Amino acid sequence: MKTRILLFLSFAFLSATILTFTGCKKYEDGPRFSLSSKKGRITNQWQFTEKIVNGQPQQLTNITVRDIKRDGAYILTVGTSTDETGKWEFSSDKESITFIPDDDDAYSRDILRLKSNELWLEYRDGSDIYEYHYRKN
Predict the structure, then answer these.
(1) Which of 73, 75, 79, 110 could serve as a FRET partner for 89 with CA atoms 20 to 30 Å apart?
(2) What share of the chain is helix, strand, coil (3-state, %, to 5)?
(3) Average pLDDT per run of 10 along the chain, which is 137 residues long?
(4) Which pLDDT does position 21 carry in this prediction?
(5) For 126, phi and psi rounded to 5 degrees?
């Protein structure tokens, strides 16, 4: 009897573990599992590393850093000067991020990947698809 109970509990634990780690992931390109919160992962200083338009890599012209702060503020620096400041917020499902510049209209980016050291954002403009890759600075 004890063997059956132990076997049942082992099977239940194994099943729960498999379902937890193989379930749907939030972002298309991962990660599948993280101990850090989404806010904890996105609040970083991110350096722009790659721009892809319609699947084709583009030449980078300026060093761009997007500093996303825990208090909801952000600073976008292009080259050596601040280009944009404002507030940021997740969408309700946390699948996209909206940037609200201090002196311009808000814009949203879909989150493809959000890891502690890597951030991929995407947006569509008509039939064009823009993908931006960032690494922790």
Answers:
(1) 79
(2) 20, 45, 35
(3) 62 52 46 68 94 94 91 94 94 95 96 95 96 94
(4) 44
(5) 65, -125
Domain boundaries of the chain, sorted by first residue: 2-136
- DSSP secondary structure code for residue 87 in this structure: E
Q: Which long-range contacts (CB under 8 A, 24 or more apart) does 20-28 make?
A: 26/94, 26/95, 26/114, 27/95, 27/111, 27/112, 27/113, 27/114, 28/112, 28/113
Residue 33, classed as helix, strand or coil, is coil
Q: Which two tokens stand for residue 101?
A: 């510049």
> Do the Cβ atoms of 113 and 29 come closer than 8 Å?
yes
pTM: 0.73
CATH superfamily for 2-136 is: Domain of unknown function DUF4822 (2.40.128.540)
The pLDDT of residue 62 is: 84
